[in-house]
Write a structure and sequence with these properties.
The chain is α+β, with helices and mostly antiparallel strands. It is built from five helices and eleven strands. α1 (about 80-90) packs parallel to α2 (about 100-110).
Amino acid sequence: MEPLKQAYDLELTDKDHGQGWAFGRPVGITTDQWPRSRINGLPMAHLWTILVPEAYRVKGKDLVGISFFQADDAFEDRVGGVEDMITNLTEMNNIDAEDFWASLSNYANHRHRQETYLEDIIGGGWALIWLTEAEFSGGSTPMPNKENTICLSYEVEEWSSTCFVKDAPAQFIQHVVRIDDPNVGKMLDEWPDEGDENTYIPMFSEKGEILKLDRFHAKSHFGGTANPIQGMPEFSPFYIEFEEEFGDANMGGGNGQIDLLNDQFDWACG
């Protein structure tokens, strides 16, 4: 894998640059493949779909984009049998909610081959899907049907992260080349050896302040200097950091980071 030489900021824009969008609908998946909560089976909220710069395509050069989804599983009521069906393909025979279990079974048995399920430290559910160029350029995925994707008598809260609550018009995203970032290609490190000239430089360290790294504060981006709200995750240089404005992600006023190389995810609230 070639060393990284460039970081990219991600900005919301009114113009379609062909580089992705926040909110809106996913592409490259069928409605049956729309990621589902492991707690209640509800379709997750689509947060964003972004074209990945070529140097960050760590899963293969044919996989060029990523879609990211959220479920507020840490705060939702559990529907018995959902997690077992998705994880173990265990079938449920419930005549009172037959359509719900049939739709969940379709998802469990036909998940997108590039879907990775991620669970955070408080039990929240997230899903990352890598997309080919053809999938990234495809049409929007039709929304799941409320009639068969919500379990009988289950009440969907108005704040929850589901596709029904978070359905909003797409906002386009563009890549902007980041200038003079000394942390491009460096593994994130909260406690670097300050005597090592090649180590990561934290934004608010003495050296970081001299270099004015706070100019990268609160920016969504691929690689380079990170700005986690609390602790620094020990992630590879091949990561994306995103703010809540990207799809109205529920992170308590904080932001999140995804290590694309190692399929790891972290976030913290403000």
